[in-house]
Design goal:
mainly alpha, 9 helices, globular
Length: 239
């Protein structure tokens, strides 16, 4: 569980607002992306590409992924509920993620890219990590714009980015990008995936993540196993 201190009602409102938006707009795509990292790693580990520098960096990605999972689990009070909720997120978005991956594979196959099964998973993972990173940055930017006094970098004693930094995956995203670059260079993959079919399928997925359309399904599944849910503890200190 993570204790967060605030010093006035504006900061309290900023925390509540940001927490709600992170819960609805970031955690869903983040948990999905972290799950896809594991899937991609397992495919890569069984491939001919899992050697030398790619092997080293891929293992580093897995360690970073596992550390991030632990960080996210450590900040919640009800570990059992969080586990059930996480599993429900993966189940709820599985079809849409699979459809996105399938669309990428079709483009790779049309361009005669070898090992398209693995590379479609590699690229799906890259896109989801990037989307989760950008979504977090946009949420913090919007919250600061809404609550931060003009000209200041943070509120007195409260930095929203640092408060919610467990949900930021910039380093993980960069390391996976490096793995992708090496893989694509070795495989000779040079395909423009920004076509209508891939973009349309991603927009379907991203729109559902952004609007929290998976949330009700996830909560219902988790609450069947754990009826009660305790929120994060927030401690106030007056000036």
């Amino acid at each position: 569980m993570k204790d967060v201190k605030y010093y006035n009602n504006t900061q309290k409102e900023a925390l509540e607002y940001t927490s709600k938006v992170v819960d609805f707009g970031v955690t869903l795509i983040l948990y999905s992306a972290l799950n896809e990292v594991l899937n991609a790693y397992n495919l890569l580990r069984e491939s001919k590409y899992f050697v030398h520098n790619i092997k080293r960096r891929a293992k580093n990605v897995l360690e970073m992924r596992n550390k991030k999972v632990k960080e996210l689990r450590d900040i919640v009070m009800h570990k059992g509920f969080a586990e059930a909720y996480w599993d429900a997120i993966i189940d709820a978005c599985e079809k849409d993620v699979a459809d996105f991956r399938k669309t990428i594979k079709e483009v790779l196959d049309d361009n005669n890219v070898p090992d398209s099964d693995m590379f479609s998973q590699i690229e799906t993972t890259r896109v989801l990590l990037e989307a989760a990173k950008i979504q977090f940055e946009e949420v913090i930017k919007a919250s600061n714009s809404k609550y931060l006094p003009k000209g200041l970098k943070d509120m007195k004693g409260l930095n929203l980015f640092n408060t919610f930094r467990e949900f930021y995956i910039d380093n993980l995203h960069k390391e996976w990008e490096a793995v992708c670059s090496q893989l694509y260079k070795i495989n000779g993959t040079d395909v423009d995936l920004n076509n209508d079919s891939v973009t349309t399928q991603f927009n379907v997925l991203a729109d559902k993540f952004a609007k929290g359309l998976y949330i009700d399904e996830c909560l219902k599944a988790a609450e069947q196993e754990f009826p009660e849910f305790a929120g994060a503890k927030v401690v106030i200190e007056e000036d």
